[in-house]
Amino acid sequence: MAFTRPTGKHRRPTRRATRTGAGLAGVAALTTTGVVSTLAFPAAAAEAPAHTGFTEAIVIGHSLADRIDDQAAAQRLAAEDAAAEQAAVEAARLQAAEAKRKAEKKRAEKVRAARAAERERLNRYVLPVEGSYVSTGYQTGGSLWSSGSHSGVDFHAPAGSAVRAVGAGTVVETGWGGAYGNEVVIKMHDGTYTQYGHLASATVSVGQTVTPGQQIAVSGSTGNSTGPHLHFEARSGADYGTDMDPVAYLRGHGVDV
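RE: above sequence
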């Protein structure tokens, strides 16, 4: 004879079943926390390695610290390389600046030396006829001179000899000068005047600047002259009668006469 379950309300679970369900829920909770495995199965817990979240965190922490240390070391090396490169660049800049300073100093010294040499060249004096000598002295008396004495000196100069400016100056007069024949008068850079007479011809013109030793004329025997030679005068002013001793004048400027 078969029995059938009555329909309608379900039967109320027994207390045992309730306790069993609660126990299973507790075991599940303990299992989640990792405690039940140790308590329920101590042998298995002893054999199996413990893999807790704490241990993994330490391992991960060590790995991260190593990576941070490596990164810091790399950054430090990069900074040192950058500093070394910057130091090399700065050293090169300083070296280039020093080389430039030395080059500029050398150029300035060359310029100063060239200017000094030019000043020396312009300030020097020379004989009006190279390698010549005085054939008639200053203030020599006689009837050959209208003033009764020689107002300059005569330098030995065969016809056609090159006549030179004794120093730097500006030509203020050329052409016929009466008893002087063809002449050239130069106002010197120090304000004095020099005169060159009895010339065959002049090779400069009024207003021209001349330098020491520059050819200004060709010697001859024009005007009141007894033969080819150069009449040379030194004057303190432009007018006749302001003559000075030409030999003393030249010697005063370092010329060996």
